[in-house]
Amino acid sequence: MAALPSTRRGRPGITIVDVLSNPREGEVLIYRFVTFLLFVLAILVGTHFYFWLRLVRETHLPLPYRTWATVACVALAGSVPLSLMAPRLMPRSWAAVAAWPGYIWLGLMLLLFAALVATDALRLIFAAAKMASGRPPLDPATRVLLARHAAIAIVVVVVVAGTASIYQALRAPLVNEIHIALPRLPPALEGTTIVQLSDLHIGATKSRGFAKDIVRRTMALAPDLIVITGDLIEGRFGSVRADARPLVGLQAPLGVFMVTGNHEYYSGVHEWLPEFRRLGIRVLRNERVVVDAEKGGGLELAGIDDWNGASVEPGEGPDLGRALAGRDPGRPLILLSHQPRAIFAAARAGVGLVLSGHTHAGQIWPFSYLVRLQQPFLEGLHRVAGTQLYVSPGTGYWGPPMRLGTRAEITRITLVSLAS
Description:
Layout: E1 3-4, E2 14-15, H1 16-21, H2 23-57, H3 65-89, H4 92-133, H5 140-170, E3 174-181, E4 193-197, E5 202-203, H6 208-219, E6 225-228, E7 233-234, H7 237-244, E8 256-258, H8 262-266, H9 269-278, E9 282-283, E10 287-291, E11 299-303, H10 309-312, H11 320-324, E12 333-336, H12 343-348, E13 353-356, H13 368-371, E14 380-384, E15 387-391, E16 409-416
Helix pairs in contact: 2-3, 3-4, 4-5
């Protein structure tokens, strides 16, 4: 039976039977789904109509090319929602086939939109300059010729940039070695190594082979501790479970820990939580543990749920106060938070280090500037007051198999004392 997103804590999903037996709950779910769907469709229709105006109508394409281009715009617009829903609605083999074309077009669509907007901005500047100089406007034939040349140039640039970004996304993640000085680190824990993985998004376009490769590369680094800062999977449990099974190979002397990301919630978090435990991964849900307590009192590791949790599962979400309740101020403390915006509350609470992901470093330039509107930092090591923050650019990618101006990474952190 098809499942709708859960609105009840502890339940993996709500089936059509539940909706029929609880009309009020069904109305809420249907309203949310229809609202979101209409919002996405409005953006897609508007964007592709803009493409049609600039690349088809303005260039005066002759028949039958005009008809073909129009049909292509409609088909490409439809491929995007199909790709987004495929991992959650289709069997694994079908989802992969449906997802790849639409996801690639989604990335190209973003690049094309940015290129056209930039071109239109330049056109406005030139038009204003021409009006100020008193020069006469171009004749219609010249305008059409320039529009056609501009369209060809834009399409070529987008295809080249898209091809380069696909190559970059499908490359193996680099290993980024960093040293972080952690306050109150006991001498016995000096040199402790942590491998941080983030945003793998194992699902339709990143399957079992991708997971096996990440496990192999991680274990080759021989970490003392492995942490996963959210968005481990992408898709419904029954479809993606087999792809995630190689993660059982992640093992470290001090344990393997993770926190939920927004996509764990979108994918049915309460179905996935028992599976993560079966894979040997402990999910820290607004809680704290002590690792390696035998060495100088140990290291405290805390984790909070994702910020989007409450919007999907009422009553859930991050609770830093609960995670840090009863902490030992004499121990070093590392906080796992999927989203970097936790840094400010963490700094007020005196956390030594926050490890985050979520941003993908913007993934596809120039959309990194939009991510900065939501998150305070995109990637790398930062400091707020006395608290450090490391934001991973992600070990995988979301949606479009593309990275432009960014690179996926596996982060290997070596802890050192402030005196080192």
